[in-house]
Design a protein that fits this description.
CATH superfamily of the largest domain: Metallo-dependent phosphatases
Largest sheet: 7 strands, mixed
Number of domains: 3
CATH class of the largest domain: Alpha Beta
Number of strands: 16
Strand content: 15-25%
Bound molecules: manganese (II) ion
Strand order of the largest sheet: 3-6-7-8-9-11-10
Order of helices and strands: EHEHEEHEEEHEEEEEEEHEHEHHHH
Number of helices: 10
Structural class: alpha/beta
CATH architecture of the largest domain: 4-Layer Sandwich
Distance between the termini: 44 Å
Radius of gyration: 23 Å
Helix content: 25-40%
């Protein structure tokens, strides 16, 4: 069987809303021509409460998939709840869609509508011409709880099937920022293929001697230097145990660094304009990120370098973002380490980190699931309901 791995569409992503929709649609459409099964390891949506417009985008895309003549079918489902389709489109929610336990997230909604099968804390078996592929999933959760959930769930492969383990977490070997992140050898053993989402750039590695694949997001989100390669998805073929990467059309991304040395602000602006004009010459309205680093000429202050109007000047030709991260004046070094640490986690996870730190500091009993408490406190809805939920979680376990 051919298994397509597509991840992190981020439908509804404010900054590049139309790109997110178009690129997700193209990736899914192409994958459904090339593969028998589609696996989506999280972050279909950018937000746990997408607007009706964004939900409509998702429904339109997935409904088209459900009309195709799929030869593979979901023949077995093992987990809470039930499935509402046999179509081999299998997904889990990611961290962006995460809500408190026992509350519907937007991926659940697509499942309820019969547009996909949600294997969060569940296993689905897909069959085609007598061949079976089993997909065991764990939806994206806060990093510090993942090991505990793995232990409790104890995911095991299914006899007589090609076994896939699908999850949505940071992996320490790729992002060595926190001891909470799972290490590759702590992932459950015995699966034939490991599939992760969450990480937005493509990765190919091995876990317990078996392929470990991350397709990366279909839309640009972080504007990092390493994101200049084209987006796409993997297709894994169980008959040859090999895989290939399929590119999709996506908006071009150009990342440039400008080093300045005792430069006058007008000179810096001129150089930036030159970079933008060159990078946008093809007329395809690329995303251009420019990082300015170095020192201004003596006598000039940081505020003299006013770049705020530049993006607007070129908005018809390019989407421009300028970071003046390292620009110094009078020997003051810009503190950038905090910003860098922040770049690697979502605002929500950053908030959760602070919340957990404060709870630990105040010697709060961590056994009462602080992540659940955070989800409840940060959820939408009536204040009364939220406080009641939080009190229940604190005092009734
Ligand atoms: Mn993501």
């Amino acid at each position: 069987m051919r298994i397509a791995l597509l991840s992190d569409f981020h439908l509804g992503y404010d900054r590049f809303r139309e790109d997110a929709r178009r690129q997700a649609e193209e990736a899914l459409e192409l994958a459904s021509q090339l593969a028998d099964v589609l696996l989506i390891p999280g972050d279909i949506f950018d937000n746990r409460s997408p607007s009706p417009d964004v939900l409509a985008e998702a429904i339109n895309i997935f409904r088209e998939l459900s009309k195709r003549q799929w030869k593979a079918r979901v023949v077995k489902f093992d987990g809470k709840g039930e499935t509402h389709t046999e179509i081999p489109v299998i997904a889990i929610p990611g961290t962006h869609e995460r809500r408190a336990q026992n509350v519907e997230d937007p991926v659940d909604l697509l499942g309820l509508a019969g547009l996909l099968v949600d294997v969060s804390q569940a296993c689905a078996v897909v069959e085609k011409d007598g061949e079976r592929v089993a997909i065991r999933g764990i939806g994206g959760i806060s990093e510090e709880r993942f090991k505990e959930v793995l232990k409790a769930e104890d995911p095991r492969p299914v006899d007589g099937a090609f076994n896939v383990f699908m999850f949505h977490q940071s992996v320490y070997e790729l992002l060595p920022f926190s001891q909470d992140f799972i290490r590759a050898d702590e992932l459950p053993d015995g699966f034939d293929l490991y599939v992760n989402g969450h990480i937005h750039s493509r990765f190919e590695g091995r876990v317990h001697g078996k392929p470990f694949l991350i397709s990366g997001s279909t839309v640009l989100t972080q504007l990092k230097e390493g994101e200049q390669e084209q987006k796409g998805f993997f297709v894994f073929d169980t008959s040859t145990m090999s895989y290939n990467y399929n590119r999709i059309n996506c908006r071009r991304f150009v990342h440039r660094k400008i080093e300045i040395e005792a430069a006058e602000p007008a000179r810096v602006e001129e150089e930036i304009r030159k970079v933008i004009e060159e990078a946008s010459a093809k007329g395809d309205r690329p995303i251009i990120r420019i990082e300015v680093d170095g020192k201004l000429k003596k006598g000039f202050k940081n505020v003299d370098l006013n770049l705020s109007g530049l993006a607007k000047d070129y908005e018809d030709k390019a989407i421009v973002e300028i970071s003046r991260k390292g620009v110094e004046n009078a020997g003051i070094i810009a503190a950038d380490s905090k910003r860098q640490a922040f770049d690697n986690v979502s605002v929500k996870d950053y908030g959760l980190g602070i919340f957990l730190e404060r709870l630990r500091h105040n010697e709060y009993d961590m056994s009462a699931n602080p992540t659940q408490l955070f989800e409840l406190l940060s959820s939408e809805g009536s204040r009364e309901k939220i406080v009641k939920g939080a009190m229940d979680s604190l005092f009734n376990g």
